[in-house]
Amino acid sequence: MKLFVVKTLIINVFVLFVSHLHSQSAKITFAPQWMPQAQFAGYYVAQQMGFYKEAGLEVEIIHPSANIPATDLLSSGKVDVISLFLITGMSAKNNGMDLVNIAQLSQHSAIYIVTKKSSGIDRLEKLKGKKIGVWKSGFDEVPKAMMKEKNYDVEWIPILFSVNLFMLDGIDAMTVMSYNEYDNIINCGVNEDELNVFPISDYGYDVPEDGLYCLNATYNAKKEELKRFVEATFRVWEYASANKTEAIDIVLDKMKAAHIPANRVHQDWMLDRVLEMMKGSNKSKDNGRVKKGELLETDFNHASKIFGNSSGNDLKYTFEEFYRSPNQ
After folding, report:
1. For residue range 246-265, what is the model confidence (pLDDT) as tens digits?
2. Domain spanning 111-203, CATH architecture
3. What is the pTM of this model?
C-alpha cells in the first residue's frame, strides 16, 4: 500500500513538473524589415489574438528604423528572427552573416517599374538614359540586376519614403511595390490608365521576396521554438485572410502607436496584395505541390544567378546551407 502511494506521488510530481515546463512560454523576438503596415499583419494578429501563446511562445515584435535595418538587429543578437527579401538575405549571408532562411512567405515578386503615359516611356527599353527612383533597404537589387543584364544604362535616384519626386516629374520612372507605392500614386490623383506598368516578373525576374531568417546558431539552439513560430505564423495568415477587417483594425492600432499615418483603404489594398504574393499554387516541383513556407531550390538558383549578375560575385554557400526549414 505504501509502495503504491509513493509511486502515485512520484507520478503526480512528474506530471506537475511537465505541465509546469509546458506552461512556461519560450521567448522569441521578431523584427519585420520595415515599420508597421499590413505587409506584416499576420505577426501583429498572432501576437494580439494569442496565436503565439497557444503555441507556447512569448513573441516580442521590434521594428527597425531608417538607420538601423533588421539585419543589424539580428547580427547584434537583439532579435531571434527577421523578415527579409530573398535577395537581401542571400546578399547578407554572402557578406559573412551566418543566417539561414527558415520559411519563405512570399512566392512571387511584387515589384513594378512605373512611368506616366505622358512621358512617352511605354516600353522597357525606352528607360535607357532615364532617371529611375529606387527604394533602398533591399528593394533595389533585382531591378538593378535586370537593367544591368539588359544593358540599359539608367540613372538610379535613391528614394527614402515618398512618391513625391515621381508626382512632380523629378524622375522619369519609379520602382514601386504592387501592394504599397503603386496604390500611393493612385491615391495621389493619378488614374491607373494614366500609368505604364512594367511588372519585373513579366521580364524573367519573378524572385520571391519576404522570408523568415535567423542566425544559424539560433536555428540550432531553438529549432523547436522556431518550428512553432513558423507554424503559428502561417496559421494566423490564414486567419487574417478570412478576417480582414479585424486584421486591419490591429494593423491600424500598431501604426497609430508608432505615430505613422494610417489609411484603412490603403492598408486593406496592401493586405490583399500581400496575400496574393504568398500563393504558390502555380508553382510546381518534381515531387508535387509546393508546401506552404517552402523555398524552392529552383527559385534559389534563379535568385543566385541574378545576384551574381548584379554583384559580380558568386555565392559562397549552397542551397542546403541557406535554407533550413525547422521541419527538416
Report:
1. 999 999 999 999 999 889 99
2. 3-Layer(aba) Sandwich (3.40)
3. 0.86
Sheet architecture: strand order including 155-159: 155-159, 131-135, 173-177, 111-116, 195-199
Backbone angles phi, psi at 15, to 5 degrees: -60, -45
d(CA 236, CA 269): 19
C-alpha dist (Å) from residue 182 to 41, 232, 300:
19, 30, 27
Check: CB of residue 106 under 8 Å from CB of residue 208.
yes
Domain ranges of the chain: 24-108+208-322, 111-203
Architecture of the domain whose range is 24-108+208-322: 3-Layer(aba) Sandwich (3.40)
CATH topology of 24-108+208-322 equal to that of 111-203? yes
* Residue closest to 322 by CA, chosen among 229, 236, 216, 207: 216
Rg (CA), the chain: 22
Residues forming beta bridges with residue 135, ordered by sequence position: 159
> 16-65: per-residue pLDDT in tens?
333 433 445 799 999 999 899 999 999 999 999 999 999 999 999 999 98
Give SS3 for 280. Answer: coil
